[in-house]
Design goal:
4 helices, 177 residues, acyltransferase activity, transferring groups other than amino-acyl groups, single chain
Length: 177
């Protein structure tokens, strides 16, 4: 039987997380998706997530299978939508899921559902009932993961990031009951 759980990432996890991120960048490139192709996320981004205690890893039988950052409060990238709108009060706080990636060794095992479930639980425990996430318009795999985990498509945002080639993203929202 497989044992899996979500925990906060530590500095000791950094090499494994960076390996997963690098493999995810290569996987996106293979699919012709220019998300994460200009350096982002950097090693420093991941290190900062760990230092700020917002980086999480999905452990499967003692190995790191996936990683994600769970940002509390408000994300300036979600302030202005090019198309669509958010549900709820614009002043509400929420958690944002960023830099989510699955190890190629564990891809296709439906572990993203466990990862998301863990992130939902942590959000709830921290007092947040709203989550937001975004992905590249061509990233059909991530769009499927997002939809299969109950998120609702809300519109299009644009990241103001000079390190990304294409900054248009589909934005999604979920309210926990």
């Amino acid at each position: 039987m497989t044992t899996s759980y979500l925990r906060k990432a530590t500095k000791a996890d950094l090499p494994a997380i960076l390996e997963i991120i690098d493999a995810a960048k290569a996987y996106l490139k293979e699919q012709g998706i220019n998300q994460w192709q200009a350096g982002y996320p950097t090693n420093q981004d991941i290190e900062k997530d760990i230092e700020q205690k917002i980086s999480y890893v999905l452990m499967v039988d003692g190995e790191i299978a996936a990683t994600a950052a769970l940002w509390p409060d408000r994300d300036v990238n979600y302030d202005d939508m090019l198309e669509g709108s958010w549900r709820g009060n614009p002043e509400d706080t929420y958690m944002s899921i960023h830099r989510i990636a699955m190890s190629s060794k564990f891809r296709g095992q439906r572990l993203s559902e466990k990862m998301m479930s863990g992130l939902f639980t942590i959000s709830s425990e921290l007092g947040y009932n709203e989550l937001r996430i975004d992905t590249h318009p061509k990233n059909k795999g991530m769009q499927k993961v997002i939809a299969n985990n109950g998120f609702e498509y809300r519109g299009i945002i644009d990241f103001n990031d000079e390190n990304e080639v294409d900054t248009t993203r589909f934005a999604y929202q979920l309210y926990l009951n």
